[in-house]
Protein backbone atom coordinates (compact mmCIF):
# COMPACT_ATOMS: atom_id res chain seq x y z
CA UNK A 1 0.00 0.00 0.00
CA UNK A 2 2.82 2.37 0.86
CA UNK A 3 4.46 1.74 -2.52
CA UNK A 4 1.18 2.42 -4.37
CA UNK A 5 0.74 5.65 -2.41
CA UNK A 6 4.27 6.74 -3.34
CA UNK A 7 3.59 6.00 -7.01
CA UNK A 8 0.41 8.09 -6.97
CA UNK A 9 2.29 10.92 -5.25
CA UNK A 10 5.04 10.74 -7.87
CA UNK A 11 2.49 11.08 -10.65
CA UNK A 12 0.90 14.02 -8.86
CA UNK A 13 4.25 15.82 -8.58
CA UNK A 14 4.99 14.93 -12.18
CA UNK A 15 1.74 16.53 -13.35
CA UNK A 16 2.41 19.62 -11.24
CA UNK A 17 5.89 20.04 -12.72
CA UNK A 18 4.54 19.70 -16.25
CA UNK A 19 1.94 22.37 -15.59
CA UNK A 20 4.78 24.72 -14.66
CA UNK A 21 6.59 23.91 -17.91
CA UNK A 22 4.11 24.05 -20.82
CA UNK A 23 4.94 22.11 -24.02
CA UNK A 24 7.11 23.77 -26.63
CA UNK A 25 4.40 23.21 -29.24
CA UNK A 26 0.66 23.38 -28.63
CA UNK A 27 -0.05 20.36 -30.80
CA UNK A 28 2.06 17.64 -32.34
CA UNK A 29 1.22 15.06 -34.96
CA UNK A 30 1.06 11.65 -33.30
CA UNK A 31 1.44 8.63 -35.57
CA UNK A 32 1.09 5.17 -34.08
CA UNK A 33 2.60 2.12 -35.77
CA UNK A 34 1.50 -1.31 -34.58
CA UNK A 35 1.95 -4.83 -35.88
CA UNK A 36 -1.06 -7.11 -36.11
CA UNK A 37 1.16 -9.92 -34.81
CA UNK A 38 4.66 -10.30 -33.40
CA UNK A 39 7.31 -9.93 -36.10
CA UNK A 40 5.07 -8.12 -38.59
CA UNK A 41 7.74 -5.43 -39.05
CA UNK A 42 6.18 -2.47 -37.23
CA UNK A 43 9.48 -1.32 -35.70
CA UNK A 44 11.25 -1.32 -39.07
CA UNK A 45 8.41 0.63 -40.66
CA UNK A 46 8.16 2.99 -37.67
CA UNK A 47 11.86 3.89 -37.61
CA UNK A 48 11.86 4.35 -41.38
CA UNK A 49 8.81 6.61 -41.20
CA UNK A 50 10.54 8.70 -38.52
CA UNK A 51 13.57 9.14 -40.78
CA UNK A 52 11.35 10.09 -43.73
CA UNK A 53 9.60 12.63 -41.49
CA UNK A 54 12.92 14.14 -40.42
CA UNK A 55 13.62 14.89 -44.08
CA UNK A 56 10.14 16.22 -44.90
CA UNK A 57 8.95 18.42 -42.05
CA UNK A 58 10.33 21.60 -40.54
CA UNK A 59 10.31 20.57 -36.93
CA UNK A 60 11.46 18.06 -34.37
CA UNK A 61 10.76 14.37 -34.91
CA UNK A 62 10.73 11.86 -32.07
CA UNK A 63 10.51 8.08 -32.18
CA UNK A 64 8.96 6.55 -29.06
CA UNK A 65 8.98 2.86 -28.24
CA UNK A 66 5.91 1.77 -26.28
CA UNK A 67 6.41 -1.72 -24.88
CA UNK A 68 7.01 -3.68 -21.69
CA UNK A 69 10.73 -3.83 -20.85
CA UNK A 70 12.06 -7.35 -20.96
CA UNK A 71 9.08 -8.87 -22.74
CA UNK A 72 10.14 -8.04 -26.29
CA UNK A 73 13.54 -9.27 -27.38
CA UNK A 74 15.80 -8.56 -29.14
CA UNK A 75 15.89 -4.98 -27.94
CA UNK A 76 15.27 -2.19 -30.43
CA UNK A 77 18.01 -0.24 -28.62
CA UNK A 78 20.51 -2.92 -29.73
CA UNK A 79 19.02 -3.40 -33.19
CA UNK A 80 19.55 0.30 -33.94
CA UNK A 81 23.08 0.25 -32.51
CA UNK A 82 22.39 2.97 -29.96
CA UNK A 83 25.41 2.01 -27.85
CA UNK A 84 27.64 2.86 -30.81
CA UNK A 85 25.64 5.89 -31.91
CA UNK A 86 25.80 7.43 -28.45
CA UNK A 87 29.33 6.35 -27.55
CA UNK A 88 30.71 9.14 -25.37
CA UNK A 89 27.26 10.76 -25.06
CA UNK A 90 24.54 10.37 -22.46
CA UNK A 91 21.34 8.63 -23.49
CA UNK A 92 18.36 10.01 -21.56
CA UNK A 93 16.24 7.16 -20.20
CA UNK A 94 12.61 8.20 -20.62
CA UNK A 95 11.13 5.08 -19.01
CA UNK A 96 13.21 5.49 -15.86
CA UNK A 97 12.39 9.20 -15.68
CA UNK A 98 8.63 8.64 -15.92
CA UNK A 99 8.76 5.75 -13.46
CA UNK A 100 10.66 7.90 -10.95
CA UNK A 101 8.48 10.97 -11.46
CA UNK A 102 11.17 13.09 -13.11
CA UNK A 103 10.26 15.61 -15.87
CA UNK A 104 10.77 14.60 -19.50
CA UNK A 105 9.88 17.75 -21.42
CA UNK A 106 12.78 19.17 -23.35
CA UNK A 107 14.75 15.92 -23.08
CA UNK A 108 16.11 14.40 -26.28
CA UNK A 109 18.53 11.82 -27.69
CA UNK A 110 19.34 13.21 -31.14
CA UNK A 111 20.80 11.05 -33.88
CA UNK A 112 19.99 10.93 -37.61
CA UNK A 113 17.79 14.00 -37.10
CA UNK A 114 15.51 12.05 -34.75
CA UNK A 115 15.13 12.08 -30.97
CA UNK A 116 15.01 8.48 -29.74
CA UNK A 117 12.99 7.45 -26.69
CA UNK A 118 13.76 3.76 -26.30
CA UNK A 119 13.76 1.11 -23.61
CA UNK A 120 17.33 0.69 -22.34
CA UNK A 121 19.26 -2.07 -20.60
CA UNK A 122 19.12 -0.03 -17.42
CA UNK A 123 15.30 0.00 -17.65
CA UNK A 124 15.42 -3.79 -17.79
CA UNK A 125 17.68 -4.00 -14.76
CA UNK A 126 15.24 -1.85 -12.80
CA UNK A 127 12.28 -4.09 -13.85
CA UNK A 128 10.38 -0.97 -14.94
CA UNK A 129 6.80 -1.61 -15.99
CA UNK A 130 4.91 1.61 -16.71
CA UNK A 131 1.19 1.84 -16.05
CA UNK A 132 -1.24 2.80 -18.81
CA UNK A 133 -1.43 6.32 -17.36
CA UNK A 134 2.35 6.65 -17.33
CA UNK A 135 2.60 5.50 -20.95
CA UNK A 136 -0.01 8.07 -21.96
CA UNK A 137 1.94 10.68 -20.01
CA UNK A 138 5.06 9.67 -21.95
CA UNK A 139 3.19 10.06 -25.25
CA UNK A 140 1.69 13.45 -24.47
CA UNK A 141 4.48 15.16 -22.56
CA UNK A 142 7.46 14.53 -24.79
CA UNK A 143 8.64 17.57 -26.75
CA UNK A 144 8.46 17.36 -30.55
CA UNK A 145 6.46 18.43 -33.59
CA UNK A 146 5.90 14.91 -34.88
CA UNK A 147 5.85 11.78 -32.76
CA UNK A 148 6.12 8.29 -34.22
CA UNK A 149 5.09 5.66 -31.67
CA UNK A 150 6.00 2.01 -32.05
CA UNK A 151 3.13 0.47 -30.06
CA UNK A 152 4.31 -3.02 -29.24
CA UNK A 153 1.97 -4.23 -26.50
CA UNK A 154 1.95 -7.89 -25.60
CA UNK A 155 -1.74 -8.44 -26.26
CA UNK A 156 -1.52 -12.10 -25.23
CA UNK A 157 -1.06 -10.79 -21.67
CA UNK A 158 -4.52 -9.76 -20.44
CA UNK A 159 -3.04 -7.21 -18.00
CA UNK A 160 -1.42 -5.41 -20.94
CA UNK A 161 -3.94 -6.08 -23.71
CA UNK A 162 -6.48 -3.75 -22.11
CA UNK A 163 -4.00 -0.87 -22.50
CA UNK A 164 -3.86 -1.22 -26.28
CA UNK A 165 -7.01 0.67 -27.21
CA UNK A 166 -6.25 3.48 -24.74
CA UNK A 167 -2.80 3.93 -26.26
CA UNK A 168 -3.89 3.85 -29.90
CA UNK A 169 -6.72 6.25 -29.06
CA UNK A 170 -4.05 8.88 -28.31
CA UNK A 171 -2.85 8.77 -31.93
CA UNK A 172 -3.94 11.06 -34.76
CA UNK A 173 -3.07 8.46 -37.38
CA UNK A 174 -2.59 4.70 -37.02
CA UNK A 175 -0.52 2.52 -39.31
CA UNK A 176 -1.35 -1.14 -38.83
CA UNK A 177 1.25 -3.53 -40.22
CA UNK A 178 0.17 -6.94 -41.49
CA UNK A 179 2.31 -10.01 -42.16
CA UNK A 180 0.44 -11.93 -44.92
CA UNK A 181 1.70 -15.38 -43.88
CA UNK A 182 -1.53 -17.34 -43.12
CA UNK A 183 -0.35 -18.51 -39.69
CA UNK A 184 0.55 -14.92 -38.78
CA UNK A 185 -2.84 -13.68 -39.99
CA UNK A 186 -4.57 -16.23 -37.78
CA UNK A 187 -2.34 -15.42 -34.80
CA UNK A 188 -3.28 -11.74 -35.07
CA UNK A 189 -7.01 -12.23 -35.63
CA UNK A 190 -8.12 -10.84 -32.25
CA UNK A 191 -5.98 -7.72 -32.56
CA UNK A 192 -6.96 -7.26 -36.20
CA UNK A 193 -10.66 -7.38 -35.23
CA UNK A 194 -10.09 -4.64 -32.66
CA UNK A 195 -8.25 -2.57 -35.26
CA UNK A 196 -11.12 -2.97 -37.73
CA UNK A 197 -13.56 -1.83 -35.05
CA UNK A 198 -11.53 1.37 -34.59
CA UNK A 199 -11.70 2.05 -38.32
CA UNK A 200 -15.46 1.59 -38.29
CA UNK A 201 -15.66 4.21 -35.53
CA UNK A 202 -13.91 6.72 -37.79
CA UNK A 203 -10.30 6.46 -36.64
CA UNK A 204 -7.82 7.33 -39.40
CA UNK A 205 -6.11 4.05 -40.19
CA UNK A 206 -3.57 3.15 -42.87
CA UNK A 207 -3.18 -0.56 -43.57
CA UNK A 208 0.22 -1.80 -44.70
CA UNK A 209 0.79 -5.33 -45.95
CA UNK A 210 4.46 -5.96 -45.28
CA UNK A 211 6.67 -8.67 -46.82
CA UNK A 212 4.52 -8.66 -49.98
CA UNK A 213 5.69 -11.34 -52.42
CA UNK A 214 4.64 -13.64 -55.27
CA UNK A 215 4.02 -16.54 -52.91
CA UNK A 216 0.93 -14.85 -51.50
CA UNK A 217 -2.48 -15.94 -52.71
CA UNK A 218 -3.56 -12.32 -53.04
CA UNK A 219 -7.23 -13.08 -53.67
CA UNK A 220 -7.47 -15.30 -50.58
CA UNK A 221 -5.45 -12.88 -48.43
CA UNK A 222 -7.57 -9.85 -49.32
CA UNK A 223 -10.81 -11.81 -48.93
CA UNK A 224 -9.72 -12.66 -45.38
CA UNK A 225 -8.61 -9.12 -44.51
CA UNK A 226 -11.54 -7.30 -46.15
CA UNK A 227 -9.63 -4.03 -46.43
CA UNK A 228 -10.21 -1.83 -49.45
CA UNK A 229 -7.30 0.59 -49.25
CA UNK A 230 -3.81 -0.51 -48.30
CA UNK A 231 -0.14 -0.02 -49.07
CA UNK A 232 2.42 -2.73 -49.66
CA UNK A 233 6.06 -3.11 -48.70
CA UNK A 234 7.86 -5.85 -50.65
CA UNK A 235 9.57 -8.79 -49.01
CA UNK A 236 13.18 -7.66 -48.54
CA UNK A 237 16.11 -10.06 -48.49
CA UNK A 238 17.05 -10.85 -44.90
CA UNK A 239 20.76 -10.41 -45.53
CA UNK A 240 20.13 -6.70 -46.16
CA UNK A 241 18.83 -6.31 -42.59
CA UNK A 242 21.83 -8.22 -41.27
CA UNK A 243 24.12 -5.87 -43.18
CA UNK A 244 22.27 -2.85 -41.78
CA UNK A 245 22.73 -3.97 -38.17
CA UNK A 246 26.37 -4.95 -38.61
CA UNK A 247 27.08 -1.55 -40.15
CA UNK A 248 24.93 0.36 -37.65
CA UNK A 249 22.64 1.74 -40.34
CA UNK A 250 18.92 2.46 -40.17
CA UNK A 251 16.68 0.30 -42.39
CA UNK A 252 15.73 3.61 -44.06
CA UNK A 253 18.68 3.31 -46.45
CA UNK A 254 16.95 0.36 -48.17
CA UNK A 255 15.16 1.79 -51.22
CA UNK A 256 12.74 -1.15 -51.30
CA UNK A 257 11.52 0.13 -47.94
CA UNK A 258 11.80 3.91 -47.95
CA UNK A 259 10.41 4.61 -51.43
CA UNK A 260 7.01 2.88 -51.05
CA UNK A 261 6.69 4.13 -47.48
CA UNK A 262 7.44 7.72 -48.50
CA UNK A 263 4.84 7.43 -51.26
CA UNK A 264 2.32 6.06 -48.77
CA UNK A 265 3.00 8.92 -46.35
CA UNK A 266 2.53 11.46 -49.15
CA UNK A 267 -0.69 9.83 -50.36
CA UNK A 268 -2.26 9.89 -46.90
CA UNK A 269 -0.79 13.31 -45.99
CA UNK A 270 0.72 11.94 -42.79
CA UNK A 271 3.13 14.84 -42.42
CA UNK A 272 0.37 17.46 -42.59
**What would you call the shape?**
globular
Give the termini separation: 46 Å
Number of domains: 1
Question: Uncertain spans, ≥5 residues at pLDDT below 50?
Answer: 1-5, 11-26
Q: What this model shows, in words?
A:
Residues 1-5 and 11-26 have low confidence and may be disordered. Strands 3-4-2-5-1-6-7-8 form an 8-stranded mixed beta sheet. It has 272 residues and is α/β, with parallel strands linked by helices. It is built from 14 helices and 8 strands. It has a single domain (2-267), classed as Rossmann fold, CATH 3.40.50. It has helices spanning 2-20, 42-56, 76-79, 82-85, 94-99, 121-125, 132-140, 158-161, 163-168, 182-187, 189-200, 218-225, 238-246, 255-267, and strands at 29-35, 61-66, 110-111, 114-117, 146-151, 173-178, 205-212, 231-234.
What's this model, at a glance?
With about 270 residues, the chain is of the alpha/beta class. The chain is built from 14 helices and eight strands.
Write the SSE topology.
Layout: H1 2-20, E1 29-35, H2 42-56, E2 61-66, H3 76-79, H4 82-85, H5 94-99, E3 110-111, E4 114-117, H6 121-125, H7 132-140, E5 146-151, H8 158-161, H9 163-168, E6 173-178, H10 182-187, H11 189-200, E7 205-212, H12 218-225, E8 231-234, H13 238-246, H14 255-267
Parallel strand pairs: 1-5, 1-6, 2-4, 2-5, 6-7, 7-8
Antiparallel strand pairs: 3-4
Helix pairs in contact: 2-14
What key phrases describe this protein's structure?
272 residues; alpha/beta; Rossmann fold; 8-stranded mixed β-sheet; disordered N terminus
Amino acid sequence: MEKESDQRMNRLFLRERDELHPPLVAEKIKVGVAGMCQGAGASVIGTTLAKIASKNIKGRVKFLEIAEPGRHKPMLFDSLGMDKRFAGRDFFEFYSAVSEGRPIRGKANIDEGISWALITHNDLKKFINLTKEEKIHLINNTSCDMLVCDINCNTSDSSVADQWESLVDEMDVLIFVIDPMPSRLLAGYSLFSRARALEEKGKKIIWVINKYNDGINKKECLAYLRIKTYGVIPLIQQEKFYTSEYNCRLPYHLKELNLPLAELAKKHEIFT
